[in-house]
Amino acid sequence: MPVSGMAMGHVPLLGRVHAGKPNDPDEFDGETALIPQFLIDEDPDTYACLSEGDCMNRVYPEGCLIAISPNREPQNGSVAVVTIDGRDAVMRRMYRTTQTLVLSPDSFNPEHEDIVIRATDDHIIEFGGRVVWFQSKDEME
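Request: output the structure for the sequence above.
Response:
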């Protein structure tokens, strides 16, 4: 059943974000998605992606629509969209210390492992934002 009873608004649907093995982000051209309007009011730059893979399936089922706020700084324990070296986009639970970034799966699949990046590693990390909402694909219009 689609979301009902609240004001909805359109945001850009930028593609798929991989909740599994890091991959190049897919891109959709000009498509939009409906998310709750209050999320857009809080951050007009909010965008949406589709989840792909099973490394976050304890909290976000594969194929669900996720809303990402690029202006909300991910905090320890929040789910972030992260790009590694400009090409590997992943959605993982994030933990940060002064010297280490850990991108941790939250999955029923025991094969997924933490991605650990140390300050001394030669990687460029970009935060695409914090996941603020999701909608199961079975409940999307």
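The beta strands are 8-18, 32-36, 47-52, 65-69, 79-84, 88-96, 100-104, 115-118, 125-135.
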